[in-house]
Amino acid sequence: MNELGALHFQSLSFTGLAAGARLIVLGAVHGNETCGTQAIRRVIGEIESGQLGIVAGTVTFVPVTNPLAYARRQRMGDRNLNRNLVPTDAPREFEDRIANWLCPLLAQHDALLDLHSFHTAGEPFVMLGPEDNSGTLEPFARAAEETALALSLGVHRFVDGWLDTYAAGVSRRLAAGASSREADVHYGVGTTEYMRSQGGIALTLECGQHDDPAAPGVAYRAIHHALAQQGLTSESAPAPVGATEALRLYQVVDRAHSGDAFARAWASFDRVRAGERIGTRHDGTPVVADCDGHVVFPNPAALPGQEWFYLAKPSSRV
């Protein structure tokens, strides 16, 4: 049996006796991000043992969303599942096959909690969608509901501006003659963007660094809180967190050459001052911050043409 022949997709649903919300929780969209998988399996065990009851609505768990990447213990199978997520009649990459299974499943639910981790050290945070708008990029009308769910998860940092910032990067790549994939705004669409396009609310929770032993606990607490906040369990709904920090992504910087290097080992949300050197291009050109802010998602192993880091600045969103 070849590698693909040993793989399968798995989801497990629990439905209460009363009507209610339909929540879906994803783990291991990226195969080396396993905190969500661990937390999901822990909660499933509690439900199956009777320790935790689903009293209303439906919760669906997907412990391993990308089984190929998970089996390989790496971020991707053939490509990044959290980009260009859409069903296709002509699947070429393994992630296309996942999309054909996952997208209809997402569309059957009202809310999504997608559990991730990140490359470098840092505190957990929630990625929010856009504010209510009627634009063409990501129209949305449920920002208040989404924010209320975000505030219940137990973390204090909130980040928005993803697709707007990604689209600006696409425009820059187009001007530079990038490939059709790198210059396609739809390539910025992942699980949460697809969920919102189907009328739902959706959050990505980044639970900490990949190997942080605390990350599975962050994911576990967030699942319990989301279930309670959505009214699926009899647990008391969590109070919204206080002392919040809100940031908005405003710029993505791509790695242009394998010789591009960071000035130091950046961690997500490290502060930078206007004019401070963040890195150096292979030809010696400095890459500096254009204003006071934060470095987000620094990836020293980014391939040329891919996102190297993002910049964020304070927001009044939350």
Keywords:
globular; OB fold (Dihydrolipoamide Acetyltransferase, E2P); Aminopeptidase; 7 helices; alpha/beta; 318 residues
CATH architecture field of the largest domain: 3-Layer(aba) Sandwich
Number of strands: 14
N-end to C-end Cα span? 51 Å
Helix content: 25-40%
CATH class of the largest domain: Alpha Beta
Order of helices and strands: EEHEHHEEHEHHEHEEEEEEE
Structural class: alpha/beta
- Residue ranges: pLDDT <50 for 5 or more in a row? none
The total number of structural domains is 2
Kindly estimate the percentage of residues that lie in beta strands according to DSSP.
Answer: 15-25%
Identify the strand order in the major beta sheet. 1-3-2-4-7-5-6-8-14-13-10
Broad shape = globular
CATH fold naming of the largest domain: Aminopeptidase
Overall pLDDT metric: 94
CATH superfamily of the largest domain: Zn peptidases
- What is the rounded Rg? 19 Å
Largest sheet features: 11 strands, mixed
How many helices? The count is 7
